[in-house]
Design a protein that fits this description.
By secondary structure, the chain is mainly β. Helices cover 14% and strands 40% of the residues. 19% of the residues are buried.
Length: 248
């Protein structure tokens, strides 16, 4: 029997099998099974989705995705904040009652709306924000605002931030008032002559109250802050200061 004839007879004894490939790798047939080694190298990539849209594997040089991680932000809370700011702008905001006592002197010139003296502050057309972390969630919505008014309920501080367009520069001014005694102080240093006011040039990025000082942070070509010392308004931080804020 020739070599070729023997080889062909041996092939008749092999078992034909189908093979389903589900993962990349090298595959060789078992003994007595007819199929050659198969190498599978299909490009499979992981995908993290952070925005709504249509994602096609071909656009990522892949035949598929594994794993797929979905990380689409939930904008419902942001929409609720925008709604509150919209109502505030329309004069239809909330009424927020506080435990901040008004000055008791009915003749206090800093207290013209309190002829009877005493009582607590009630803010009409306001937003009860909550903690400093909650206030930070409003910050991106306020970054281009020309004026921002915030009341820190726990300590009784009223903060007024103002951007003043002055020729080719923007002056940022921070005024802090101690509502309990009517004393005010302001810091209006931090001038930046290089600001491109055609692009607004100056965005509010947040506020901190710490170490006897209020700092309002802005971003322009670089970051800077406007600082005001609270000692100038006879302010003493109360015990267990809860840092609760409202926008007015």
């Amino acid at each position: 029997m020739s070599f070729i004839a023997g080889y062909l007879m041996g092939l008749e004894d092999l078992k034909n099998e189908s093979k389903k490939i589900e993962e990349n790798g090298e595959y060789t047939p078992d003994e007595g099974v007819r199929w050659d080694k198969v190498t599978v190298d299909v490009p499979i990539k992981g995908l993290t989705v952070s925005e709504n849209g249509t994602y096609r594997a071909a656009n990522f040089d892949a035949a598929g995705f594994d794993p797929v991680n979905i990380n689409v932000p939930d904008y419902r809370d942001d929409m609720e904040r925008y709604k509150k700011l919209w109502l505030l702008a329309r004069g239809e905001g909330e009424t927020v009652e506080t435990d901040i006592p008004k000055p008791n002197d009915p003749d206090d010139p800093n207290n013209p709306d309190n002829p009877g003296g005493g009582g607590n502050y009630v803010f009409e057309n306001a937003i009860d924000v909550g903690s400093l972390d909650d206030l930070d969630k409003y910050t991106p919505m306020l970054e281009n605002a020309e004026t921002i008014d915030i009341v820190e309920i726990g300590g009784g501080l009223a903060l007024h931030l103002e951007r003043i367009y002055n020729g080719n520069r923007i002056d940022v001014k921070l005024t802090v008032t101690n509502l309990k005694n009517g004393m005010s102080t302001s810091g209006d240093s931090c001038f930046r002559t290089s600001l491109d006011i055609r692009n607004n040039g100056c965005e509010y990025t947040g506020i901190q109250i710490h170490n006897g000082m209020v700092s309002a942070y802005y971003r322009s070509d670089f970051s800077f802050s406007v600082d005001t010392w609270l000692s100038e308004i006879d302010f003493q931080a109360p015990a267990n200061w809860d840092r609760h804020f409202i926008l007015v």
